Amino acid sequence: MAERRFTHSIRVDVAKCIGCVACMKVCPTKAIRVRQKKAIISYDRCIDCGGCLRVCPYNAIMPLTTQLADLDRFKFKIALPSPVLYTQFGQEVMPNEVLTILKEIGFDHVYDEALVCEMINVATEEYLDENKRLRPMISSMCPVVVRLIQRLFPSLCGNILPIEPPREIAAKNLRAEVCKQHNLNSEQVGIIHITPCSAKMVSINHPESMAKSHLDGAISIREVYNKIMMKLKKETGMLMMQTQNRISGIGIGWAIEGGEIRGLKYTSSVSVSGLLDTIRILEDVESGRLKNIEYLECLICPDGCIGGPLTVENRFVAKSNALRLMRHFGGKKRVNSALVKRLYSENFFSFKWAVEPKSFPPLDKDRNVAIQKLKDKEILIQRLPGTDCGVCGAPDCRTLAEDIVRGEARLEDCIYYNEIVQKNRKITGDKNETRRSR
Amino acid sequence: MMMNKSDVQSEVLFQQEFAIRGGDFVNAGESSCKIRNTLREIGIDSDVIRRIAIAAYEAEMNVVMYAENGVMSISVYREEILLTIDDKGPGIEDIDLAMQPGYSTATEEMREMGFGAGMGLPNMKKNADRFKIMSELGKGTRLEIRILLDDKNG
Question: How is A231-251 classified by DSSP, letter by letter?
């Protein structure tokens, strides 16, 4: 496979960034440095988790998602919202109202992915039944988890369930249907995900398991929120049932951690959400500690997609809304299992190719040099104060030490180190004393 | 411990040691995690890292479960990685029996905690290119796990 570029959905707005260390401190892959009072993201390391986006006090981290204005190039526009969208507008608002308004603000068609979620459950069970060699299999629904595994847990790439997420399968199906129905060719149809995170944009622009995504873009929930809210306020009560979508409690459940495994027959499944807990459980998987677990659902955002960085409602209220909707619509399955099994056997849901490892580069390409650099790094760590203040522009002392041995920073970047050097100079009067001090 | 002639090899490029405390379930797994990170930094192939991580974790758990204390050491050579675990503990009475999948001397409590499936030693052996086990009753056990490196980065 030719090299495909690993591009990203997050940018620093240098006009707004003042070089505080908030984003750098939370980055799980240590992809951010502060240089000349500006945050710089290393796109070789970024996995698009959106952690920086959440914490930036100056709104200087921008998600790069599709804008409504970008849709003009399509003749027929379809919105494919994440079920998270239904949880954003308070207790009284029903999914059908949200879908109806969504259609009014600029789409020709809206589609609810609930039924596809049920289909994916059946396909997952088929896969797990047929392939028992490797356990646990890990859900591929969250694009950040896929990238986290490629980067930090490359040996687990084979554990990623090779089945596309509901948004992709729904789009694949829709495009074929709509083209036929309206006599359009494929490029005239724009299928847009309404997303709680910017990471979906990366999986659309640069999918890891196929050449081209079935989706044409992703608009953030934040971007459509005001428009939907305004219309909801104006037109209460007049919007019922203008779409043919049949909402299901199961589909809405996918917005919350555990939604995916709830629909599986396998009882030894585990769901995890949040960045740190996901990293922790993947470490356990890598140690071979969780082989008795069949299936692992990991979602990077806290509590699942409802905790996405591009949502509006706080996630606790959103969760309450989701649970209420799930009770209202019930958990009755509507999926035609026989049909799904046939489609599964035709590889309708499958990855085109396996997700490949993309490990971080070692300290050096030459192993002997890398080992020398590792030793140098350990010595440097002893010299640094260990307070992880971040003033040097690296997130912590260990990372500064690593940057130094990689030739990307200097020991003098550490203000504590400089202080000690100054003091020693005063005491000894020795201007060359820089190396031996601690 | 004396080295056999066949064990004498090229100069050790890198070595790290970790103390493991028997009965310390809370911190169990930390050493294998550190080993994994170290090997990544020096560019060891991810499949090799996975095998070492599994062997190291199983070995670490064995010390935690059965021994008073132990030392795990990882040594990187040009052509292989050597993982050794020396513990002060009860020793293994019948090594052949202990190597059989499913055989375990774990207590009921350990089994309830999900340990003691009798797969520890077989798993280490499965992931190793060469596996050696030496034990003296009442004194302790030494494990040597070797995984060969293909030489492209050496």
Answer: HHHHSTTS-TT-S-----HHH
